[in-house]
Structure formats: structure tokens, C-alpha cells
Design brief:
Elements lengths: L1 H4 L12 E5 L3 H12 L4 E5 L2 H12 L10 E5 L7 H10 L6 E5 L4 H9 L2 E5 L4 H15 L2
Parallel strand pairs: 1-2, 1-3, 3-4, 4-5
Helix pairs in contact: 3-4
Length: about 140
């Protein structure tokens, strides 16, 4: 968390990034997307692990305007497949963008699975300022 201290809440990144957000709760997904869009990001929203996988593949293969993906933010427990399972498949296919996994059931196993997939864990209830800071940190590290 030390790295987060260097990122001020009001700082915005100089260019828009594409973030893929997977959350099965419509209300929470809308809230999270709004927070990320407030920082100028393009947010692609999906409601399941399966949709996360399909959308990421479509974006990475040029099926979405602006092709490319800069960050994945996903819930752990979702219909179809978990966010971590989808992230694992994407990692296996070569996707190396930063990831943040959101969970209301944080335990040692979840944290270990997230770490094995190079993902940061964000516990529910989500603090929007923390999500935005984590996103800025991840994006500034990979896209200086």
C-alpha cells in the first residue's frame, strides 16, 4: 500500500485507458464504472466471468473500437466462472495487463489465487477512492 501513498486522489492520467470491468451486481457495476469513468477511462462492462473472457478476447483481437486493454477489474464470485478463473485463462493466453480482483470473501486461498495471476485484491465493501487509486497506480506503472 506504500505505493498508493504516492498517488493523490485528484491526479488523473494523461490519456484515456480501456478498462474491462466484470461485476454481476448491476448496481455495483454501474457505481464502479462511474468512478473509473470519472478519471477519464473507457470502461467496458460485463456481468459474468464468461463475458469477461469473451469481451477480452474480442477487444484483444481488434473487435472493439480502439482495440487494446489496459486493466481488468473483476469480481471473484460471478456466474459462469469466477473472475480469477477467467483471469487465469487470459494469463494463459498471454494477456499481461494489470488486474484488480474484488471480493467479499477474502481468505488466504483467494489472495493466493489472485497473487498467482498477478492481481491485486480489493475487499468489499469497495471504497471508490481506493479503487481509483489502485487503478491509477496500476496504469501508471504499465503506461507511464
Amino acid at each position: 500500500m506504500q505505493a498508493l501513498a504516492s498517488v493523490r486522489q485528484g491526479d488523473a492520467l494523461p490519456r484515456s485507458h480501456t478498462i474491462l470491468l466484470a461485476e454481476d451486481s448491476t448496481d455495483l457495476r454501474t457505481l464502479l464504472a462511474g468512478a473509473l469513468e470519472a478519471d477519464g477511462h473507457r470502461v467496458l462492462q460485463v456481468a459474468s466471468g464468461t463475458e469477461l473472457l469473451e469481451t477480452a478476447r474480442r477487444v484483444l483481437h481488434g473487435g472493439e473500437e480502439g482495440g487494446g486493454l489496459d486493466l481488468v477489474v473483476c469480481d471473484v464470485r460471478m456466474p459462469g466462472m469466477t473472475g480469477i478463473a477467467a483471469l487465469h485463462l487470459l494469463r494463459g493466453a498471454g494477456l499481461r495487463v494489470p488486474a484488480i480482483v474484488i471480493t467479499g470473501f477474502s481468505d488466504a486461498t483467494t489472495r493466493a489465487e489472485a497473487a498467482a495471476n498477478d492481481a491485486t485484491v480489493l475487499d468489499k465493501p469497495v471504497k471508490l477512492a481506493t479503487l481509483r487509486a489502485l487503478a491509477r497506480q496500476a496504469l501508471s506503472t504499465t503506461h507511464p
